[in-house]
Amino acid sequence: MLRNTTRSYGSVARILHWLTALLILTEIPLGLLANRWITDIDRKVQLFSLHKTLGVAIFAVALLRILWALGQPRPASLHPERRFETLLAETVHWVLYVALVMVPLTGWVQHAATEGFSQILWPLSQGLPFIPKSESLATVMGLAHQTFAWMLVGSLVLHIAGAVKHAVIDRDETLSRMVRGEPAGPGHHGHRTAPAAAAFVIYAAGAGIAFAMVPPTEAPAQRLEAVASDWHVTEGTLGFTVRQMGTEVQGSFADWTASIAFDEATGTGNVNVTIAMPSVTLGTVSEQAKGADFFDVANHATATFKADIEPQGDAFIAKGTLNLRGAEAPVAMPFTLTIENGTATMQGSVTLDRRDYAIGQSYGDEATVGFPVEVQANLTAKR
User: Fold this and answer.
1) 24 burial level (CB within 10 Å; 0-12, 13-18, 19+)
2) β-strands 247-253, 327-340: how paired?
3) CB contact at 8 A, 239 and 115
4) Average pLDDT over residues 265-287
5) Cα 229 to Cα 248: distance, rounded to the nearest angstrom
6) Rounded Cα–Cα distance for residues 78 and 7 (Å)
7) Residue 106 contacts by C-beta under 8 Å, 6 or more apart in sequence?
8) DSSP of 317-337
9) Exposed e or buried b for every residue in 136-170, given b needs 16+ CB within 10 A?
10) Domains and CATH numbers, the chain
11) Distance between the two ends of the chain, CA-based, in angstroms?
């Protein structure tokens, strides 16, 4: 029998119930392993990808299960005289229903709001419609995901404890109705709104806790001091692109200075750029990028690029040395330059090899982090 009755669960409901149970009991250990117990970044990325992919599957199954349940009668309680126990059981069911949607949904939004790190293992887009790339949104959704996940675990424990009580203490047919679809209990069932309302109050409280946990905006770190320069940079960006797990990830530095001397008549000059390495952002792995295996900002707070400028065809090139993470290597960056009414606009890019600067030495191949890193510089300066 496919459909429910007031005394039994149909095969569709039972299949969806046990499929959901298997997915959740796989998903929770994956999340704990990836988030807390695995430190190797390759394994961590793989586990997070599986965790996210299963999360999307749980979201789909949960929606299907809820839609099916809304159109089906629910078998009546075997002990309607136990009003508090019945109310508690139905409330826990509603908490579980909402959790099965909110936990994967908040995780999915967090994933869509960030760049890089582990991917959902499917050929579709990694983003979501109307979800911008936003670190603040990702932070809020990450906290909501954790809060709702613990609520899911708590309600799941109560649900399992209730099933064990019915099987071991009450010795009734509650569990056999879901395992074998056997009919049991009175043939009537009334829809109650109190458990649903209680469940949504619980989740509203959980959302409030998640928002309360959002860390306050940190005061900006002390910026690099201004430097003397013939050309004053009024605006600009210093970014880079690296392939991570086969996907391009954009990074940037928020704090840098440039001392520029340039003779328009000869097209020659020099530039001295200082970069505050703690100002780096790189998708969801900004903190890892600052760590000892990568930029090691604790021991190398700045990087410098000193170069001479000379014409190259219709454009220019800056040839010099990049000192990054205590290592030096020659760098030649071609760039375009236009000067109008004392305002210069420059755009340039160069591809570096992270191995020249001992960055990510434990990643000897490109399966996780690519070797080439494209650096992009764009600025506007006034004489």
Assistant:
1) buried
2) unpaired
3) no
4) 88
5) 34
6) 9
7) 141, 142, 144, 145, 148
8) EEEEEEEETTEEEEEEEEEEE
9) ebbbbbbbbbbbbbebbeebbebbeebeeebeeee
10) 11-212 (1.20.950), 232-382 (2.40.128.110)
11) 82
Between CA 303 and CA 310, with CA 308 as vertex, the angle to 5 degrees is 140
Evaluate whether 332 touches 316 at the Cβ level (below 8 Å): no
- Looking at residue 177, what is its pLDDT? 86
Question: Rg (Cα) of the chain, in Å, rounded?
Answer: 29
Q: Are 237 and 378 in contact (CB under 8 A)?
A: yes
Q: 79 with 94: CB under 8 angstroms?
A: no
* Both tokens assigned to 36: 């807390």
Higher pLDDT, 329 or 174: 329
Question: Per-residue confidence at 326, pLDDT binned at 50, 70, 90?
Answer: very high
CB 284 within 8 A of CB 116: yes
Return d(Cα 21, Cα 113) in angstroms, integer. 28
Check: CB of residue 271 under 8 Å from CB of residue 318: yes
Quote the percentage of the chain above a pLDDT of 90.
47
Could you identify the residue written with the tokens 């006034």?
A: 382
- CA–CA gap between residue 127 and residue 203 (Å, rounded): 25
Report the Cα 40 to chain-centroid distance in Å: 18
CA distances from 40 to 27, 47, 135, 213, 224 (A): 19, 11, 24, 28, 34
φ and ψ at residue 327, rounded to 5 degrees? -115, 145
Q: How far apart are CA 4 and CA 98, in angstroms?
A: 21
Q: Are 288 and 244 in contact (CB under 8 A)?
A: no
pTM for this entry: 0.63
Q: In what order do the strands lie in the sheet containing 232-244?
A: 256-263, 268-276, 302-312, 315-324, 327-340, 343-353, 369-382, 232-244, 247-253, 280-282
